[in-house]
Task: structure prediction
Amino acid sequence: MAQPAKSEAKQIVDNGIEKGAAGLTEDRIQAVINRVIKGESGARLKVYVDTCVHCGLCSEACHYYLSHDKDPRYSPVAKVKQTLWEMIRRKGRVSVDFMRRAAEIVHTECNLCKRCAMYCPFGIDIAYLMMVVRRIVHLLGMTPQYIQDTAHSHAAVSNQMWVKPDEWPDTLQWQEEEARGEIPTLRIPLEKEGADIMYSVIGPEPKFQAQLIYQAAVIMDVAGVNWTMPATAGWDNSDMAMFTGDNEVMGRIKREHYETAARLRVRRIVMGECGHAFRSVYDVGNRWLGWRIPPIPIIHAIEFYHELLTAGKIRVAKKFKTPVTIHDPCNVVRGGGLHRMARDLAHALCEEVVEMYPNCEHNYCCCAGGGVINCGPPWKNKRIEGNRVKADQLADAKIRGAKVLIAPCHNCHSGLEDINHAYELGLDIKFFGDIIYEVMEKPEA
Amino acid sequence: MHAIYGWVTGPLTWIAFLLFFGGLLYRLVQLLILVRRKEPFIFSYMSLKYSLRSILHWILPFGTVNWRLHPVMTIVTFAFHICLLVAPVFLMAHAILFEEAWGFGWPSLPDVAADWMTLIVIAGAVFFLVRRIVRPEVRFVTSTSDYVLLAVVAAPFVTGFIAYHQLFAYRWMLVAHIVSGQVMLVAIPFTRLVHMLFAPLTRAYTGSEFGGVRHAVDW
Result:
């Protein structure tokens, strides 16, 4: 492998963490920790901490631990020990340096992928405990700079990428125009009340991956779907506030998203190939707003494409020739059970599917999700070094023939792209949408 | 000596069992109140089917990926926990004591079996101790209290074994056995040994979330 995961003595400086730390006193830290631990948290925190017998059996679940040659500091339980246990033991009286390190651990050494919850014999949800600490870090104002910027963007313009209100419909119309070069009758219907489906995407799509909107529009058009996209805020399903512990902003933008769908009177929200956004609209945002399950059914792209293919609404003209392998994103697989459909889909679209191991619920994380990639350039190398095990797993799939890596999640895509590059794997990373667009029957232009 | 024996088998035993059962009940009620007050949504996600599905996989040796990843640990921990629960409850001496006090008892194990089970518990405790010291990922998260808890659990079995075989200081060993057993019982509700009560509950909740919401397996 190109980069051994061994060079980590250097101190990484993050302006967000440093700026927050500069204004802190131990009194303030103590007040915030106790507000969260005693005030906001409840039974889960207490029981998880009281029940853990410090057995270390969660260790092997974690890609950071495995990638760092089983360095005990990276095991899931060790991250709880270095943060929450100490905070509880010292009744919140911890130093600024301690908080600096805690912020680093919870934001850049854990992807909240919940693989460890499947390895703990007691089913302790360590990702939840990490989120409790992120909440503390947020309230202390020491969230890493880059992800805090995206959270600010959510708060200010209701999308992740500072896309301005006029840029959004403009981008959609631009993509409509582009796609009409291919299918002259194609429309991207905006604000169509009573459509069956509201299609929602994440901020980065209009910002720098507009071709994905083009592809989705072609798929929708060919399949004859009665769909729409909102021209207003509420179109973005992504949510970095969820990962910074800014629950208030998270709840506000989720409400805006659901209310936009309600205003358009659609039956379902279909979302693009994103994992964390799925988690936020399917599992997290609804709970914050008091809904046991989302108020409007949420359909992830994997499920939607599966449906279109099964119903014969899109047909495969010629199967994808190059052998593919499938990466199972944590949020839609461990968080949504879509791995079976992903496989059905891959087999329906491609001639050869090579499994990578471990797979399905046990797949290794991309190391980008959970807001880690959103902590930006200062942490990039650490993130890549922290997932050597993924590179090994991919290299193994490659040896067995895989040339294309399907990753139905934006964060996974970006994270795997970095791994692919750094470890010189030479895989071609694609979305399901890319492949469908390529192999589907399209009307003669 | 008789006075001491009478005292530990009398009032102290009462106190120990009251604290044990009362403590467990207290922890359970306290937990339910806390859930009701702050995280009532937990109740709405609990599912009997998915709870049992998850628990069943995890109480089967090698029933999960992680158990299969650690075969030695799996064998030891299952043997340890089964013997830890079964040996004291079905020990003939305990059943007789109970029958003398209350007039009824229950079938008990042959002494040889109980003896072996005791040795398994002791061996298991030694294994856990060694594992705590030699495995870096376990040592890193180990504190003094972990050793103390291990000692609290092992003590009744060590003293019981010595007393049964009358290896030395029989009477004192018997008293030590009774007292250490009482210490262990009282420790269960108020230390991390409470996992005896809580582990099935955390497992059930995670199982329910994985089954009902996440449509995925958690083993």
User: Anything to note?
Assistant: The domain at 2-213 of chain B is CATH 1.20.950 (Fumarate Reductase Cytochrome B subunit).
